[in-house]
Design goal:
Number of helices: 7
Helix content: 25-40%
Distance between the termini: 47 Å
Number of strands: 8
Strand content: 15-25%
Low-confidence stretches: none
Order of helices and strands: EHEHEEHEHEEEHHH
Shape: globular
Amino acid sequence: MTEDMPNLLADQLHPIDPDDYAAPGDPRHPPRILILTGSLRPVSYSRLTAEEGARVLRALGCEVRTFDPTGLPLPDEANTDHPKVRELRDLALWCEGMVWSSPERHGAMTAVMKAQIDWIPLAPIGGIRPTQGKTLALMQVCGGSQSFNTVNQMRILGRWMRMVTIPNQSSVPMAFKQFADGRMLPGPLYNRIVDVMEELVRFTWLTRGRPQLTDRYSERVETLEDVHKRVTS
């Protein structure tokens, strides 16, 4: 699984033993990770960064899917029957963890990134909240000097979406200098991405199958109908 990862010292990427983390009764299927990226450019450094992370996730035994935001309408521009909206929501229900990777534009995450998050509801779908209790890793790329505005904003959103947002994160400055022929160059910025993916996998194994970690009194006393009215009003 590491043959296509020339920057990686394979003997230093230690396997993650589910026995060290998994809840009793965990089904032991590979952790399901969804990647969202915040750019539609043909050459997108946020997407290339996410792809480097995806390679690490697969090497650590994860099943990884990436949502292509091309064609996703603006929030409220279409209804939830739109094919791209359905695809995104189905993936949000399928996954057990996410990676959000966005460029920083005008000191903030892109509209492309925010639109994807806004289409994922807080309200339950079929009785299941799409994001509550799922893990989240954050990455951003910068055209200039290093900034943390975007990861900080996404961290707030992750908390709002009731996700378990891991402590580590990645910010890649002057991203155009960090890639050659579509692959990230070796160095500390690449190493940080490996760190973030390792941590995401550990936290996903640790929290999956433990709904009590995000079980809330207020939700136990509130009916499903009341929840829907409150978060959609």
